[in-house]
Amino acid sequence: MNDEAQKAATTTGLYQVDLMDRYWRAANYISVGQIYLMDNPLLREPLKAEHVKPRLLGHWGTTPGLNFIYVHLNRVIRQRGLDVLFICGPGHGGPAMVANTWLEGSYSEIYPEIGQGEDGLRKLFRQFSFPGGVPSHAAPETPGSIHEGGELGYALVHAFGAAFDNPDLVVACVVGDGEAETGPLAAAWHSNKFLNPASDGAVLPILHLNGYKIANPTILARMDDLELRALFAGYGYEPFFVEGHEPVPMHRLMATKLDTVLDRIRSIQTRARTPFWQGERPLWPMIVLRSPKGWTGPKEVDGKKVEDFWRSHQVPVSNARSNAGHRKILEDWMRSYEPEKLFDNSGRLLPELAALAPTRPKRMGSTPYANGGLLKRDLVLPDWRSLALDVPRPGGAKAEATRILGSYLRDVMRLNADARNFRLMGPDETSSNRLDDVFEVTNRVWMQRIEPYDVHLSRDGRVMEVLSEHLCQGWLEGYLLTGRHGLFSCYEAFIHIVDSMVNQHAKWLKTSRELAWRKPIASLNYLLTSHVWRQDHNGFSHQDPGFADFVANKKADTVRLYFPPDANTLLWITEHCLKTYNRINVITAGKQPAPQWLSVEDAEAHCRAGAGAWEWAGTVAKGEDPDVVMACAGDVPTLETLAATDILRSALPDLKVRVVNVVDLMTLQSNSKHPHGLADEDFDALFTKTRPVIFAYHGYPYLIHRLTYRRANHDNMHVHGFREEGTTTTPFDMVVLNELDRFHLALAAIKHVPGLAERAKGLAAELQAKLVEHRAYVREYGEDMPEVQEWNWPENSATKAGD
Amino acid sequence: MNDEAQKAATTTGLYQVDLMDRYWRAANYISVGQIYLMDNPLLREPLKAEHVKPRLLGHWGTTPGLNFIYVHLNRVIRQRGLDVLFICGPGHGGPAMVANTWLEGSYSEIYPEIGQGEDGLRKLFRQFSFPGGVPSHAAPETPGSIHEGGELGYALVHAFGAAFDNPDLVVACVVGDGEAETGPLAAAWHSNKFLNPASDGAVLPILHLNGYKIANPTILARMDDLELRALFAGYGYEPFFVEGHEPVPMHRLMATKLDTVLDRIRSIQTRARTPFWQGERPLWPMIVLRSPKGWTGPKEVDGKKVEDFWRSHQVPVSNARSNAGHRKILEDWMRSYEPEKLFDNSGRLLPELAALAPTRPKRMGSTPYANGGLLKRDLVLPDWRSLALDVPRPGGAKAEATRILGSYLRDVMRLNADARNFRLMGPDETSSNRLDDVFEVTNRVWMQRIEPYDVHLSRDGRVMEVLSEHLCQGWLEGYLLTGRHGLFSCYEAFIHIVDSMVNQHAKWLKTSRELAWRKPIASLNYLLTSHVWRQDHNGFSHQDPGFADFVANKKADTVRLYFPPDANTLLWITEHCLKTYNRINVITAGKQPAPQWLSVEDAEAHCRAGAGAWEWAGTVAKGEDPDVVMACAGDVPTLETLAATDILRSALPDLKVRVVNVVDLMTLQSNSKHPHGLADEDFDALFTKTRPVIFAYHGYPYLIHRLTYRRANHDNMHVHGFREEGTTTTPFDMVVLNELDRFHLALAAIKHVPGLAERAKGLAAELQAKLVEHRAYVREYGEDMPEVQEWNWPENSATKAGD
């Protein structure tokens, strides 16, 4: 016995090791049972074909390692009274999470129909990966999970997100060696540069090197220990290795190492929570667990290596129902865990084993940290009206919308500073996106060296900036899922980087919504700015408004798309979003100086309706029938629509124009499709049933067609938007290239209003000439013509309305 | 003078250092000029307001470092006769790439209107970030670039992709410390585990730590050298540090280190290219360059630190046009480079400096590796007919479509083995996606330890598997952009992980297409399999068919979406895609055993048309008017549509049904919108102008509405597809949950054919009952009813058609 094993034996005792090993075997037994059996759960009789499920769906490979970790965490939770959140990176480890939460009792409390004892066990086995049952991942249905892991890469960012501002929490995060190959995970190790040991909790990464993915070895498992140590030292961790395959020595080793790393964590935190702490970044410990894939499963099947190889990834014995030889392997395998030494005659875990699990909320399947809605406290929100811009008349003020929002977010920060439950995320763009006012009350969090000339960096900042949309997104998800609030401000084009993460979060929300025990969490809020129309510096690569299209595919009860046309509407919408829960709110708003349209009262009324006619901008009174509807969604399209209307009104005073602005895009859908959808009669009242609609939309035109295709007037929708024509040019040239500018919009009205083309021939020619003039001017002078730069909403517009 | 400096002095000589420094200054001067000036390029007169651009757009911060690297690479290219491809990770380094390619003459050769001399210089300055001019990134317009870098994260994967199978190439890849924070970049360092030193080229990463992003320090720059060394040793590199700010010592240091790392690379390659090589993975060298951000620019502006700080990121002196003080700073700054010692009186680079650049194709701006179309050789393709499945009659064979494709890809591998210009990428799923046949002729490439029991791993495999869609995508992009071919096979849901990368590649293609000098490259081909309808193991998290929607937003001349319904159509489509260029082809096809519909001849005719009526499946002859069109796109929807038609035909023999299958989704768009779009008359001939169309589509129904919204019959399109209702269940239950199954499709026909609802009341009731029966059965037995599992296309269908 070497020193470490000696120490382990002393620490935990031989009897303790035996108990833990039996508990582990119980978890393994229940995991195998879930994958294979629909009856005879305690193997009271020899296994028959009809006991085996007809479709064997599940993943064994990662499961015994997860069970091993879970059992060992149970011990330290009890011994140390810890609050531990378990993040199961290998999403395919569903059987392990279900087995352990059932063993500890959490499962039956949440799902009383799956009780303790033989009948509950039978149902537990049967429901797994079974129609109408539970998924094979650590899905929302799984107690104790905030991380499904179906898509790999986000275990560690979720773990850090959960740990921020939860100083008493230890997040044990199992990272599979497959997942460790992904980009988001590779970057996520650097999250320790943003974790404050004084005010945040601890993340304990457990890198599980079981060697293989679906059909390949893994990169990290085939690196030698020297390279691994260097890599993690480079990332800022001290790795502790637990390696082997003999259960008893492995239990001892794991227990010793786990005690060591938890001692380290305690001493790091103790030090950081004294006045002597200088703010230095600690060297956080981590565990590297090398154990065989499919550990304790069949060594070989049909002469082929299974245990400790990728063949154990899914279902190691595939024909257990139809092939008696395979069934024998399965039965021997299950009996090797000696169920008779684990369960009593009624199928309950033996009391001496059950006693190993922590009690009530300390159980990892019952921790409120994994059901964040339980912990969520509503934000204290400032009165947006007090921060609103004075807009004496439409166009009567100019402002950068996001800068006004910055002052609102500053106050949100201030009012919730004590609660420590609001963070702002962004990839190095908080200032660039003009939200600087937040720095009056907080800083960017930064655990690296800070130089005297650095600006707004501190150890306890609540703004998180890192040049990785993946990290911003993942941290925020973890933060929300554990009951807090936040907002992610991002360049519009680059939010696509996290499409797939948003997808998974939307799926999580959809499923959670159907589970009464999962309490609502705060919405995932995006501010997309530096948008497609104002990439003056960056050009084509930074121009993509397609995130809205992506999000619109998600379930209607989950997603919202907002296009506030100015600062006051942006304030109202943001306040609204911060109050909602279980949603994905996408707000798109520019950061450039722009005319302001709505007063506080008008903004509120307009946002509540989601879409409305701006009578002051058109030439028809309410209820009167227009010749054409000039519709718009988005700040730049609104400006161009108003300018186009101005052109039409001046040149064709008889033309009846209605201006409709859409701030909540989902109003366009039918109310049978989306809760925010307008009823058909309300839609028709705005857009008419028969008149041409010239719709200037911020993004790809198709989305408007798709949202309105069931509306009576959809054949008359002429949508102008981004046509993928972009480059580095002036703001007005960008809209011209995509035919979203005032001249093209006015031309479209002329074209589509019956009979107008003939009557307005002169105007049309004039507008075409303007476009030629514009092109020449811009190419000569490198800036927009004064005429378009200086255009302002006519002062006398209010009196004109309804003329 | 320390040893290293001594060596540098001897190697390059003081005169050489002075020349290089002047060349560097020339590049810096031209970079500043591009950002600021529209006239007076040689500062022949004092700088006036009108010489300065009205809008100052560009990025200075990274530029001097890039210029420094470029100048030093020029030296080693000349001295060693190397072929070097320069990957400019900091995309904002456009001014550096343009300056250097102009100095070496490449720029003026490609763009003769931007000549050498003062007039060319004036135009060069003026066009930068100017309307109608060139972008601020290393965009397609930039000679020598395969990597725009507008979106950060992909420099290193592109570099490795370029190096594979190019044994004589050195790819010098500058990684910015901002970019180094992204996930894809963090994972990309592991690409060295897939690079064979014998048959691939070398990648020389140059990590440029200039300390800051837009408004923050960077993580890596604030790590100490010990941590950095550990990190990169862990990644498998030997880092060489070049650190400082005094130009002369920095030139010496850089020259020495560059010689050292190139010697290392040569010795690694020499060794690997002898019979003595044991296949071990070498420790590749890399350079860590620590130089000030905005190096040589203004130290302070308005009392604020600029050089060596993030304030130099974009335009360090922002009001140079309107503010005389600022203009003075700019002028002093530009004159500090002593243009009179760099250029002759005509504005040409002095001959002794021009002589420093390599000549013709060795110039990095002229290397054919950066214009891959020049090097591209068409693939030798097998005759797909020889591998096609014998399908004696529709439904007369069963097969796994992707397995048949595997045999085709095997032959593609075999026929192009000597050319070494085809690779297959996938995140650990080549076998899972049933493409195993390729392993008859090649293996997975793997430079880590190989165990005796490993399967299909070797040092020179042409299949690349890593659990990172980002790496697969990036490697393939780099491989294609340097003139080779490939295919990326991916789980359908997880291709969203690379949405943003696809976006950037589509933008690259769109712009390249407009540049005559950029020769076409092979298309980016996707095989999306393990699709939404067959996630039996994985459930909801693995169910997302939305990539098609995302891609459909891109320019019509770039994107194609194919849904082959069976194996032979999959073969034809794949062959077609491998022959195309400058496109993004997305093929979606299942891997599960499924009935086969079309013979070789029928498959070819059907695929050529893109969409067509399957008369054998319907009950109307060609030209006859149907009561209802049953349309389908995708393998599972096709099966369900045929089964629904079978139900209708049996129960309602008088009903006239036409079955239309769509294999090329873009045929649905108008031919004015997409080159593959059907003309309206052809569309109407298939889909009618007035009859109900029950459209069973593989993905989100909206896409069909959006593609057809301008068609005459669009109001009669009733699309069934994925409604975001997913879970772990049986295959048939999945289609039922989303109402894409035969019963719902038949019910939809009954509902929408005028007058049929009344007549077919009995059938409707029967179908509803079937749905209830199905639900109960699946929940009881865990598998699909035999009736749906065993349904086959009726043998006598051929005789029935046209009855």
Question: What is shown here, in short?
Answer:
Chains A, B: Residues 17-374 form the Xylulose 5-phosphate/Fructose 6-phosphate phosphoketolase N-terminal domain. 2 copies of one chain form a homodimer. Helices cover 38% and strands 13% of the residues of chain A.
The biggest chain-chain interface is: A-B, 122 and 122 residues
> How much of the sequence of chain A is in beta strands?
5-15%
Helical segment tally of chain A?
A: 27
Name the average pLDDT of chain A.
Answer: 94
Biggest β-sheet: strands ordered side by side in the sheet of chain A = 12-9-13-14-16-15
| Text of the CATH class of the largest domain in chain A | Alpha Beta
Q: State the CATH architecture of the largest domain in chain A.
A: 3-Layer(aba) Sandwich
The beta-strand count of chain A equals: 22
Quaternary state, please?
Answer: homodimer
- Taking Cα atoms only, what radius of gyration of chain A do you get, to the nearest Å? 31 Å
The dominant shape of chain A is elongated
Number of folding domains of chain A? 3
CATH superfamily of the largest domain in chain A: Thiamin diphosphate (ThDP)-binding fold, Pyr/PP domains
CATH fold annotation of the largest domain in chain A: Rossmann fold
The termini of chain A sit apart by 97 Å
Which spans of chain A have pLDDT < 50 for at least 5 consecutive residues? 798-803
The largest pleated sheet of chain A is described as: 6 strands, parallel
Helix content of chain A: 25-40%
By helix and strand content of chain A, what is the structural category?
Answer: alpha/beta
Protein name (chains A, B): Probable phosphoketolase
GO biological process, one term (chains A, B): carbohydrate metabolic process
Enzyme class (chains A, B): lyase
Domain Xylulose 5-phosphate/Fructose 6-phosphate phosphoketolase C-terminal (chains A, B): 591-793
